[in-house]
Amino acid sequence: MTIEIFLLVLLGALLHAGWNALVKAGSDKSLDASLIAAGAAACCVPFLPFLPFPEPISLPFLIASAFLQFAYFRLVAAAYTIGDIGLVYPVMRGVAPLIVAASSSLFLSEILSPVALLGIAIISAGILTLAFEARRGGGRAILVALLNAFVIASYTFVDGVGARLSGNAISYTLWMSLLPPVLLFTFAFYQRGVTPVVQHVKRYWWRGLIGGGGSILSYGLALYAMTKAPVAVVAALRETSILFAIVISVVILKERASIWRYAAGAIIVGGVLVMRLG
Known about the structure:
Blueprint lengths: L2 H23 L3 H16 L14 H24 L2 H23 L6 H53 L2 H8 L2 H14 L1 H33 L4 H8 L2 H11 L7 H19 L1
Helix pairs in contact: 1-2, 1-8, 1-10, 2-3, 2-7, 2-8, 3-5, 3-7, 4-5, 4-10, 4-11, 5-6, 5-11, 7-8, 9-11
């Protein structure tokens, strides 16, 4: 991996942690998460005419993914409403690949290497370390983050199969991004009424474009890096977003973190790195 690719992957990791920080910093986390989903969709639309439409066989997976993404954004908002990003983000980001790896043999008939199993054990140790943080009042936030990790793992499986069946993984990803904001705003209109939602959008539309653009750019940088460097190395390096999230939580959002949170974040990152590289 060249230094240029290394820096691009780190930038992508920072962007991913950054859009999560935008949700955490917002006054209405539910609508802000919906705005970021809409911003990501808006950034995808210009590229759709240049890509083939996904194969029809992949459409059920695309629709299922949209509903899972709807649940994901709702749970992101809920987690950041009751918990710090420095606590919630490492759990969501670290536990999801653990679930995928642990269950891949069941759903995808993939056999884990001893190194991957070691990575799972290390991540589990990091999660157990967060139990000390939960004793200080973070238990509910951790539970919501764990639930969202299962949702992330679920749409990872769905998209993994759907992208393979679509005939074009990039086209599948871009088309998939259009449906979640439709579901999110439909639910918001039903729950709150049209006027409050429209007023929030008029006031904070820029947050959606910045966060959504950052989300798509983060993914695009990872895809580009994977064409220039080993996929496992790129995937592992992306998990430094956990460390960026912890830094953002303390330096920018002024969250107070115990030593257990720092230790857990470092252990989870180490476990994901071992698992990805294994």
